[in-house]
């Protein structure tokens, strides 16, 4: 225990060295002014290039457009599971043998709806 305290004290002394100072010796330049944008223009991937990860594509679209993340709801059904996803005031559903497949199918359907609406 004594050794650990000495090691910690020695490391504190090293961090107090001027080379590790948190304040720079010269003042920083003022930040560059940026013009605020009203609404970011976000494009969905084209339908000719289908995504191998539609869930991630939908989530990235929502993040880039500064929208809330998509909401997924699952229910058991005859085919396995049904999933309903909603984002940007629109919703779509998909089914699959398991929740993962149902979620991906719902994301594909919502991406198609969002593309159609643009």
Verbal overview:
The chain is of the alpha+beta class. It has a domain at 54-117: Double Stranded RNA Binding Domain, CATH 3.30.160. The chain is 37% helix and 19% strand. It contains three helices and three strands. A three-stranded antiparallel beta sheet has the order 1-2-3, covered by helices on one side. The longest helix is centred in the last third of the chain and has 19 residues, at 99-117. The protein is elongated. It starts with a helix and ends with a helix. The mean pLDDT is 83. Residues 39-56 have a biased composition (Polar residues). GO terms for molecular function: double-stranded RNA binding; siRNA binding. It comes from uncultured Leptolyngbya sp.
List keywords for this structure.
single chain; 118 residues; alpha+beta; Double Stranded RNA Binding Domain; 3-stranded antiparallel β-sheet; 3 helices; elongated; double-stranded RNA binding; siRNA binding; RLC_Component
CATH architectural arrangement of one domain: 2-Layer Sandwich
Q: Which structural class should the secondary elements be placed in?
A: alpha+beta
Number of helices: 3
Note the beta-strand portion: 15-25%
Please name the CATH topology of one domain.
Double Stranded RNA Binding Domain
- Low-pLDDT stretches: none
The average pLDDT score comes to 83
Strand order of the largest sheet: 1-2-3
How much helix, percentage-wise, in residues?
Answer: 25-40%
Instruction: Write the element-wise H/E pattern from the N-terminal end onward.
Output: HHEEEH
Number of strands: 3
Largest sheet: 3 strands, antiparallel
Gross geometry: elongated
Query: What is the radius of gyration computed over CA atoms, rounded to a whole number of angstroms?
Result: 25 Å
Give the distance, in angstroms, between the N- and C-terminal Cα atoms. Answer: 66 Å
Text of the CATH class of one domain: Alpha Beta
């Amino acid at each position: 225990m004594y050794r650990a305290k000495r090691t910690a004290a020695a490391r504190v002394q090293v961090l107090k060295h001027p080379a590790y100072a948190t304040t720079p010796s010269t003042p920083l330049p003022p930040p560059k002014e940026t013009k605020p944008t009203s609404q970011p223009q976000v494009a969905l991937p084209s339908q000719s290039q289908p995504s191998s990860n539609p869930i991630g594509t939908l989530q990235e679209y929502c993040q880039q457009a500064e929208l809330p993340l998509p909401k997924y709801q699952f229910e058991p059904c005859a085919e396995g599971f049904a999933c309903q996803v909603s984002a940007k005031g629109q919703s779509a559903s998909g089914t699959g043998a398991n929740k993962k497949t149902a979620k991906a199918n719902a994301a594909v359907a919502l991406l198609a709806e969002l593309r159609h609406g643009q």
